[in-house]
Amino acid sequence: MNTRTASQTPVKSLIQARRPFSLANLFLRWEWLLVVLLVFVGLINTNISPYFLNTVNLFDMTFNFMEKGLMALPMTMIIITAGIDLSVASNLAMCSATMALLFKHGTPIWIGALAALGIGVLGGWFNGKCITKIKLPPLAVTLGTYALYRGMAFAMLGDIPVKGYPAWFTTIGQGYISGTPVPIALVIFLIFAVLFGLLLHRTSFGRAVFAIGNNEEACRYSGIAVDRIKTKLYMLSGGMAALAALVMAARFGSTRTDVATGYELHAITAVVLGGTDIGGGKGAMLGTGLALFLLGIIEWGMSLRMIPGQVQQIVSGAVLIIAILLPNLVGKFMKR
């Protein structure tokens, strides 16, 4: 048996194999722990404030983290391949600045929005090519573009915010589905969450993503286009960062170059807390979504208690560390 044939067998098993269904496997999933934590934190917030357990307030709460959620969706797939994208929030700022600059000079907002989407995808493509062609580590590449893209946003707009977006555009970030308390931004997120979930868990592309995270070299020997898949993932990340930029600009009705500062931390925290292994090969979109809402409820509860933003940042960092350590500790306990 030649080397190529031998390497195909484990990769095919990684792509095609499915765990047998059982109730034990179902209820021991990480997502159930997140559901329990959601209920627990919800009960705490209910005791903190009588206004928490209110339908309108609960829906309005989601305005605060929909942009983070949009960025967390492709981040899940990138981390499953053992990659990372630290530039995602800076890419958001660059896309927002691009749209704002064009609008400031008289370009229709929809053209500026399309340009922002193109710039976001281009920024992701640049990350992907540096990683796959030049063979630089994802951490180093996206740390560099983290500064580069934010700097480009400042170069385009400086410290002067751009305002005056048309009402139909701001409705995307501020409005509700007609006759309901459901924000339009929430619906946008849920649509893309379903699409990314199907892409990851129900397509050969998604199975290849898992296979790359488990054994990249075996995937290369078996003929899987690893570099092409990785580049597409970073392009998806850039495109979703651009979409998040549009939603954020619509929500605030203005654009500043310091928008979304630190949002990359929140997106990564949601992904890792959702059960995605930082070392690659494991993850689920449902876990990312549940973790996103869990973090959102925690932040909302801290806001109800008037806890300063600096303390909230400390809590977010602590949650990220716990999210990385806890699966390893649980895994060691189960082996014993």
UniProtKB/TrEMBL annotation:
Pfam families for this protein: BPD_transp_2
Name this protein carries in UniProt: Autoinducer 2 import system permease protein LsrD
GO molecular function term, any single one: transmembrane transporter activity
Cell compartment(s), UniProt: Cell membrane
GO cellular component: plasma membrane
Membrane topology annotation: Multi-pass membrane protein
The keyword Transport is assigned to this record: yes
Keyword annotations of the record: Cell inner membrane, Cell membrane, Membrane, Transmembrane, Transmembrane helix, Transport
Top-level taxon of origin: Bacteria
Transmembrane segments: 32-53, 73-103, 109-127, 139-162, 182-200, 233-253, 283-302, 314-334
